[in-house]
Amino acid sequence: VSKHQAESMPGLLLGDAFPNFEADTTIGKLKLYDFLGDSWGILFSHPRDYTPVCTTELGQAAELSPEFTKRNVKMIALSIDSLEEHYSWSKDILAYNNDETVSEIPFPIIADDRRELAVELGMLDPEEKDQSGMPLTARCVFVISPDKKLKLSLLYPATTGRNFDEILRVIDSLQLTAHKRVATPVNWKPGDCVMVPPAIPEDEARSLFPAGVYTKELPSGKRYLRYTPQP
Ligand code: BEZ
């Protein structure tokens, strides 16, 4: 991959069919759709092996993997280093976690040392370069639905670590709103009330949500701030 290619990345938009890429990973070669099967997926990149923020993030992702499994989400990490480096760095990540009961990172890490996938998926951070001037991968998160569409994307720079509890929280919202005609408000967590989307007329909302709809009175007189218990 040339510097020019790396600097003009295409990227993916919400709702796009996720590319069914093939990649070398720490569990062998995989093809994305075969790996995901009917599950949800999360693909997250990090800038480089043997770097401090990335080590804390992958440690946290490994620790939270049972929470992703509970939600039927398969995890895949990516960085632009080789398989050998991933295997060796994995031992550091496990040591950082200080949990002797875990002897393997519970998800594959893609070895994208030619940056081909990082360019295809728009994951590079042009501000953060290696010694030869090539951009590193940003901290990118893609959540993929069972129909292989991009449902959420987050893009953080190398210098800002992600919050994996927040990623679980948004997956809870994505999975709820995939099946119920609701939206989740600020800081929502499972069990909290949800919002009735504006496109649903009042009559329909009453029959759709038999647990009741509470509408907050507002200075505008408009009746759009409507809550209902989580269905
Ligand atoms: C890190 O993971 O610690 C890191 C990687 C690249 C740039 C800055 C920080």
Compact overview of the structure:
By secondary structure, this protein is an alpha+beta fold.
Description:
By secondary structure, this protein is an alpha+beta fold. It has helices at about 5, 30-35, 50-65, 65-70, 85-95, 115-120, 165-180, 200-210; strands at about 20-25, 30, 40-45, 75-80, 110, 125-130, 135, 140-145, 150-155, 195, 215, 225-230. The strands form four sheets. The chain has a five-stranded mixed sheet. The protein has a three-stranded antiparallel sheet with strand order 10-12-11, with no helix packed on it. The N and C termini lie far apart (about 50 Å). The model has no long low-confidence stretch (mean pLDDT about 95). The structure holds benzoic acid (BEZ). Benzoic acid binds next to helix 3.
Key phrases:
alpha+beta, binds benzoic acid, 231 residues, five-stranded mixed beta sheet, single chain, elongated, 23% strand
Strand order across the largest sheet: 5-4-3-8-9
The Rg value, from CA coordinates, equals: 20 Å
Bound molecules: benzoic acid
Question: Given the structure, what is the number of helices?
Answer: 8
- Helicity level: 25-40%
Spans of at least 5 consecutive residues with low confidence: none
**Form type:** elongated
Overall SS class: alpha+beta
Question: SSE order, as H and E?
Answer: HEEHEHHEHEHEEEEHEHEE
Write the layout of secondary structure elements.
Layout: H1 3-7, E1 22-25, E2 28-31, H2 32-36, E3 40-45, H3 52-63, H4 65-70, E4 73-79, H5 83-97, E5 109-111, H6 116-120, E6 124-129, E7 135-137, E8 139-144, E9 150-156, H7 164-179, E10 194-195, H8 202-208, E11 214-215, E12 226-228
Parallel strand pairs: 3-4, 4-5
Antiparallel strand pairs: 1-2, 3-8, 6-7, 8-9, 10-12, 11-12
Helix pairs in contact: 3-5
The structure holds benzoic acid.
GO cellular component, one term: cytosol
InterPro entries: AhpC/TSA, Peroxiredoxin_AhpC-typ, Peroxiredoxin_C, PRX_1cys, Thioredoxin-like_sf, Thioredoxin_domain
Domain Thioredoxin: 12-176
